[in-house]
Amino acid sequence: MPDRDTPHPQALTELPLFPLGTVLFPGALLPLQLFELRYLQMIGECERQGTGFGVVTLTQGREVHRPGAAAEQFEAMGTRVQIERIERPQPGLVMVWSRGVEKFRIEATQQRSDGLWLGRVELLPPEPAVQVPEDLQHLSAQMHKALTQLSEQPSVVPPWNEAWRLQDCSWLSNRWGELLPLPLQMKYRLFALQEPLMRLELVGDLVAPAGATEQQPVQKPPANS
Questions:
Q1: What is the spatial distance between Cα 56 and Cα 49, in angstroms, rounded to a whole number?
Q2: Which of 10, 39, 171, 201 would bridge with 165, disulfide CB 3.0–4.6 Å?
């Protein structure tokens, strides 16, 4: 009989996977334009079942599959998303706004006959709440300014649907990872860290206090698949 006090590993669950040439941090909004059959079917299934899907970062291949092209390969960690809005402006085109919820680690994958990837994933626990230290307070001030400017822009879905936790290392470092114009591999390294203070310290190395006004958030167009 198992010891009741022994912590059990995180349960595995199955998620449809959406490989993209980006890194989706928890809490971030992801707008998508979908026209590939595999993703139109995926969204229909998610809508009927009231479920989300997983976003993973491409390491090989393209977002839009082409006949004869190599199969997609992607990183071992990703983000489960929940769907916030769906629009169908014309036949064969679906606009989807999804929100990153939690990280997961892929344990196994398989590809359906329609090309959709499915993953057996371990959902990772939320990161601990860690107060932003005094020497990194400038990152909170700069992010407050950036978020205020972005929130004033018109949007079908608000970029952030929760209170700004500017004194929480996890939330703040995720927003910096989301908005800084960094190379994809560097973004993924920040994302994959499980220590929020370490992630924020790395961001602090990239964003000098004197250069605060030079850092401009990047507004990305919707991904196409």
A1: 21
A2: 171
The SS3 call for residue 197 is helix
The tokens for 81 are 């998303």
Going by pLDDT thresholds of 50, 70 and 90, the confidence category of residue 222 is very low
Angle made by CA atoms 21, 24, 70, in degrees to the nearest 5: 25
Evaluate if residue 4 carries a pLDDT over 70. Answer: no
What is the greatest pairwise CA distance in the chain?
A: 60
Q: Is the dihedral of CA 140, 216, 103, 205 positive or negative?
A: negative
Rounded Cα gap, residues 182 and 198, in angstroms: 17
Using the 8-state DSSP alphabet, how is residue 184 labeled?
Answer: H
Directed axis angle between helix 196-206 and helix 169-179, to 10°? Answer: 40
Do the bridges between strand 29-34 and strand 223-224 make them parallel or antiparallel, or are there none, so unpaired?
parallel
Specify the pTM. Answer: 0.86
Percentage of the chain lying above the pLDDT 70 cut: 87
Separation of alpha carbons 99 and 83, rounded Å: 6
Cα(111)–Cα(114) distance, rounded to whole angstroms? 8
